[in-house]
Amino acid sequence: MSKGFSGPVSVFHDRRLPETATPAGYAALINAYALEAPVPRTLSAIGTKHRIINDSGWRIYTPRHAPEASLEGHLTFALKNEGLDLAVLKRLFLAVKPGDIAELVRQKPTGVYTRRVWFLYEWLLGNELKVSIEDKVTYVDAVDTDMQFAGPGQNSARHRVRNNMPGTRDFCPMVFKTAALEEFIALDLEERARVVVSEVPKDLLARTAAFLLLKDSKSSYVIEGEMPPQDRIQRWGRAIGEAGRTQLDDQELLRLQRIVIGDERFVKLGYRGQGGFVGEHDRDTQRPIPDHISARHEDLDFLIKGLIEFDHAAANDIDPVIAASILAFGFVYIHPFEDGNGRIHRYLMHHVLARRGFNPAGVHFPVSAAILDKIDEYQNVLESYSSRLLPLVKWEATQNGNVKVLNDTGDFYRFFDATPHAEFLYSCVRQTIEHDLPNETQYLQNFDKFRTGVEGLVDMPERTLNNLLGFLRQNGGRLSKRAIENEFAALTAEEISSIEALYSTAFGQDGDTPE
Q1: Does domain 180-433 have CATH number 1.10.3290.10?
Q2: Choosing a second label site near 200 at 20 to 30 A (CA), which of 235, 310, 491, 514?
Q3: What is the pLDDT along the chain (515 residues), one digit of tens a residue?
Q4: Would you say the pTM of this structure is higher than 0.85?
């Protein structure tokens, strides 16, 4: 099949180029074959200057990088320079005739990129081409591990390709090896956490772990704009504390939803039997105004199956934080339930980290609390894909104010670029290990010091002691006149002075943790 590939342009799919240039690789293929797939975060083009320019989501290559204006030329350019974008590749392979791909293989049966194209075609579509390879050439990786994270690899003798895809054709988001991720991995946060924990007495560690669980559970509800009663927060905290003990399956996901929802009178539990979206309704017409449209309910079977298979197999050979990002953000984009998706999405981060032994035994990092601290960044990360996905979803409003998806969108939920999500989660995990865990431990040590001192002055129930500490923290280490005249009127002036001095010694002048 011959196609007319674009010449120089200044705008591509509403995205301005930093200079007039000719689309290459995935950009050229999307344009030439009118592919309906989320446009990659970074696109390539061929410019006129003799230097590579990276700007505004574009990489402008020099004239010497220009590929041949053909299917093979741009496919090879994409695999060589842009990594795997499985959603674009799948739509491309559906758009071309099988004979076009078979002919590429016949022309260059031992070519490194040809064999990868051949393997990817059959892997993505589940169809075999009528071609074979006679020469015993060296195996080549399906995923270029210099560019993207991959699975362990299993030889496909038919293609002489090592299948190191990180997932299955039902669910296989990809993550690029960015400088930020390489830097996070080099920090060896798993070992840092063990060092921090090893220096904490066991009784103090148990109290720290309990507080962090409660903090994470409460933060996860706050992210959803909810303020549930304490018993629901504690129940969800207990569930987080058990994360990683059970392999993921349908029953486990349904169990988690029941715990999250609690009152099921107004929420239908189980997987959705209709469409779903995240967003608002028009105040007058009640027409949906989606920010994100969930996967079609007809696609949930294979998508959930893919998630579960990823958790059981491929995730075991990928960096734990990156695996947690892929699984958790994949789940939240799919949005399989009517309610509870966000909290289960964050639970899955705990699940992978605990199952892989990333966090020390008995300790779950308060990832949701870190996310709450970075809530704007979190929303931007979620929208980094939703904003590119939404224009491709054709939908109509239903009578009950929901959405009905009219086109085939399944590929958009199983294949996406999870790089921003992995970078974000790693930043949250780093915060919990380097700040939240040691800070909470230090706080409890300071509290014990303060409590011991107060108990040496006056007998005081735990609840009253906590109330006293709250007043001191609110007022910079001093008891306010109102507190002295009301809640703590029984204290003498000398006792008040001594208590304020104890607070300053334990927590610092303004309640800060001493260095």
Answers
A1: yes
A2: 235
A3: 457 898 999 999 989 999 999 999 999 999 999 999 999 999 999 999 989 999 999 999 999 999 999 999 999 999 999 999 999 999 999 999 999 999 999 999 999 999 999 999 999 999 999 998 888 899 999 999 999 999 988 999 999 999 999 999 999 999 999 999 999 999 999 999 999 888 888 889 888 988 888 899 999 999 988 888 888 889 899 999 999 998 899 999 999 999 988 767 667 889 999 999 999 998 888 899 999 999 999 999 999 999 999 999 855 689 999 999 999 999 999 999 999 999 999 999 999 999 999 998 888 889 999 999 999 999 999 999 999 999 999 999 999 999 999 999 999 999 999 999 999 999 999 999 999 999 999 999 999 999 999 999 999 898 999 999 999 999 999 999 998 989 899 999 999 999 999 999 999 855 554 33
A4: yes
What letters, b where the CB count within 10 A reaches 16 and e where it falls short, cover 419-428? bbbbbbbbbb
Q: Which residues pair with 54 in a beta bridge?
A: 59
Contacts of residue 434, defined as CB under 8 A and 6 or more positions apart, other chains included, come to 189, 192
For residue 23, the cross-strand partners are: 45
DSSP 8-state code for residue 264: -
Q: Give dist(CA 215, CA 233) in Å, integer.
A: 9
Domain parsing of the chain, residue ranges: 1-84, 97-165, 180-433, 456-507
Cα dihedral value 310, 312, 315, 320, nearest 10: 130
Contact assessment for residue 155 and residue 183, using Cβ atoms and an 8 Å cutoff:
no
Task: Tell me which amino acid residue 105 is.
Answer: V
> Quick check: 176 and 418 in contact, CB under 8 A?
no
**Contact 310/173 with Cβ under 8 angstroms?**
no
Q: How far is CA 268 from CA 120, 336, 337, 370, 387, in A?
A: 39, 12, 9, 30, 28
Q: Taking Cα atoms as reference points, which of 383, 354, 378 lies closest to residue 368? A: 378
What is the DSSP secondary structure assignment for residue 314, as one 8-state letter?
Answer: G
Contact between residue 427 and residue 380 where contact means Cβ atoms under 8 Å apart: no
| Residue recorded with tokens 């039902």 | 170
Query: If we measure between CA atoms, which residue out of 429, 513, 390 comes closest to residue 193?
Result: 429
CB atoms near residue 66 (< 10 Å):
15
Q: What is the DSSP letter of 337?
A: B
Beta strands in 71-221 (DSSP E): 140-141, 154-156, 161-163
Q: How many residues does the chain have?
A: 515
| Residues 132, 98 contacting (CB under 8 angstroms) | no
Cα(418)–Cα(488) distance, integer angstroms: 54
- Is 189 buried (19+), middle (13-18) or exposed (0-12) by CB count in 10 A? buried
